């Protein structure tokens, strides 16, 4: 029985994780769940999965949830950052599945690593912000960081049994998002509702906007660097609109291994939970006779400057990626509130990066400070 704690159990990845657990109740036990403030859904999850702990980040929502839970249910209700840290480092868990959105997942994830918990990681912003720190801590404690992001799960599977020294390059596939093929001019005035319409995946709002700007792919390039220890010039992005090949690895002898399947996040979630084993399921199987074609094209860095900004930040190193991520989090929020335009996102990220004085090997405190600086700076810019 694998005992799981979930950061962000009410979101897109969180609920799909619970779908996987629901089908395998003899294999997985949900010990703790959490959310920012979605207490109605948390209550449903408590009733169904009977976790021992629930953490609600928003204090008022935590209080409200406490009053809603029937008295015959035995559960500890925690709140705030302290609550998230507590449910991430419980003695009673084996795995922390981090499906929270944003770098707010960083501190709880580090605490889980320090306690030796396996990390199933969907929350890419944590690695983008503090990849070096997180990977060093994981190495020190002999902790596995198992990717849930579909591209990274693909690469992880392609590297099974391979010698990492023989990697020539990593090829991340990108669907291209809802605006593939559009010109800069056409995108000048797009609305959030247009940006939220992803062709292949149904996801949370933040990652959906990131997919429309291609920042999501940029964050994934950074995530790949830290997970697989590969330099940025060896990480390529290719647009593959069908999302059937989830990513590939090219080896020094020119051989390429790809991982394929129907686009369904439940597969990488399940694999991270069952690794190194695989588990029979009823997921849709790929039918090659029905696939008309698999196509590939170069990403358009002129129309989607966020991808280039992410590569540049990674190459510059230091704390540039933390600044990129924090500014992006703020700007995506503003875009979702109709306060800025689509191209204000790359414009103000660039401005923030230019104003930043990077630190070479930052501590956690320095990263948190810089994250905060970036948020404040970008807010001033758009005022
Ligand atoms: P989502 O918006 O659907 O869900 C986010 C979850 O985080 C919710 O449960 C929410 O309550 C919780 N949360 C947000 N702020 C919180 C806070 N302050 N404290 C506690 N909980 C908080 O997002 P999602 O689409 O599930 O994405 C989650 C993460 O997984 C992101 O980092 C995203 O990039 C990554 N990811 C998602 C997908 C996908 O298909 N959705 C694919 C790959 C990677
Ligand atoms: Mg992905």
Automatic annotation (TrEMBL):
Binding site for NADPH: 10-13, 123, 125, 204
NCBIfam families for the chain: Dxr, PRK12464.1
Sites where the protein binds 1-deoxy-D-xylulose 5-phosphate: 124, 150-151, 175, 198, 211, 216-217, 220
One of the Pfam families matching this protein, by short name: DXP_reductoisom
GO biological process, one term: isopentenyl diphosphate biosynthetic process, methylerythritol 4-phosphate pathway involved in terpenoid biosynthetic process
Keywords: Isomerase, Isoprene biosynthesis, Magnesium, Manganese, Metal-binding, NADP, Oxidoreductase
EC numbers, comma separated: 1.1.1.267
UniProt entry tagged with the keyword Isomerase: yes
Pathway: Isoprenoid biosynthesis; isopentenyl diphosphate biosynthesis via DXP pathway; isopentenyl diphosphate from 1-deoxy-D-xylulose 5-phosphate: step 1/6
Protein name (database record): 1-deoxy-D-xylulose 5-phosphate reductoisomerase
Keyword hit for Magnesium: yes
Cofactor(s) required, per the database record: Mg(2+); Mn(2+)
InterPro entries (alphabetical): DXP_reductoisomerase (IPR003821), DXP_reductoisomerase_C (IPR013644), DXP_reductoisomerase_N (IPR013512), DXPR_C (IPR026877), DXPR_C_sf (IPR036169), NAD(P)-bd_dom_sf (IPR036291)
Span of domain 1-deoxy-D-xylulose 5-phosphate reductoisomerase C-terminal: 145-228
Substrates-to-products reaction catalysed: 2-C-methyl-D-erythritol 4-phosphate + NADP(+) = 1-deoxy-D-xylulose 5-phosphate + NADPH + H(+)
Recorded family membership: Belongs to the DXR family.
């Amino acid at each position: 029985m694998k005992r799981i704690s979930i950061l962000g159990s009410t979101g897109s990845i969180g609920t799909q994780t619970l779908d996987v657990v629901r089908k395998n109740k003899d294999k997985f036990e949900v010990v703790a769940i959490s959310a920012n403030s979605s207490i109605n859904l948390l209550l449903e999850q408590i009733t169904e999965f009977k976790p021992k702990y629930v953490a609600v980040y928003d204090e008022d929502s935590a209080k409200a949830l406490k009053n809603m839970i029937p008295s015959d249910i035995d559960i500890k209700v925690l709140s705030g950052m302290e609550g998230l840290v507590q449910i991430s480092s419980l003695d009673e868990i084996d795995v922390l599945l981090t499906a929270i959105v944003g770098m707010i997942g960083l501190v709880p994830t580090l605490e889980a690593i320090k306690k030796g918990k396996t990390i199933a990681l969907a929350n890419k912003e944590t690695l983008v912000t503090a990849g070096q720190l997180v990977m060093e801590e994981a190495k020190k404690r002999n902790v596995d960081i198992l990717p849930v992001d579909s591209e990274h799960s693909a690469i992880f599977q392609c590297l099974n049994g391979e010698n990492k020294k023989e990697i020539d390059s990593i090829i991340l596939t990108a669907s291209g998002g809802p605006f593939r093929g559009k010109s800069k001019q056409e995108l000048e005035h797009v609305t959030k509702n247009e940006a939220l319409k992803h062709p292949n995946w149904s996801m949370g709002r933040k990652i959906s906007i990131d997919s429309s700007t291609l920042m999501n792919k940029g964050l994934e390039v950074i995530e790949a660097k830290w997970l697989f220890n590969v330099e940025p010039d060896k990480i390529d992005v290719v647009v593959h609109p069908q999302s059937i090949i989830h990513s590939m690895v090219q080896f020094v002898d020119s051989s390429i291994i790809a991982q394929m399947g129907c686009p369904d996040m439940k597969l990488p979630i399940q694999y991270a939970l069952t690794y190194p084993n695989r588990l029979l399921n009823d997921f849709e199987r790929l039918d090659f006779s029905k696939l008309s074609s698999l196509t590939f094209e170069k990403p358009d860095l002129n129309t989607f400057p966020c991808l280039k900004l992410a590569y540049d930040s990674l190459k510059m190193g230091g704390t540039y990626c933390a600044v990129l991520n924090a500014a992006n989090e703020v700007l995506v929020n503003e875009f979702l509130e109709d306060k800025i335009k689509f191209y204000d996102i790359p414009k103000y990220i660039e401005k923030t990066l230019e104003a930043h004085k990077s630190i070479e090997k930052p501590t956690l405190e320095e990263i948190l400070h810089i994250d905060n600086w970036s948020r404040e700076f970008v807010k001033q810019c758009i005022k």
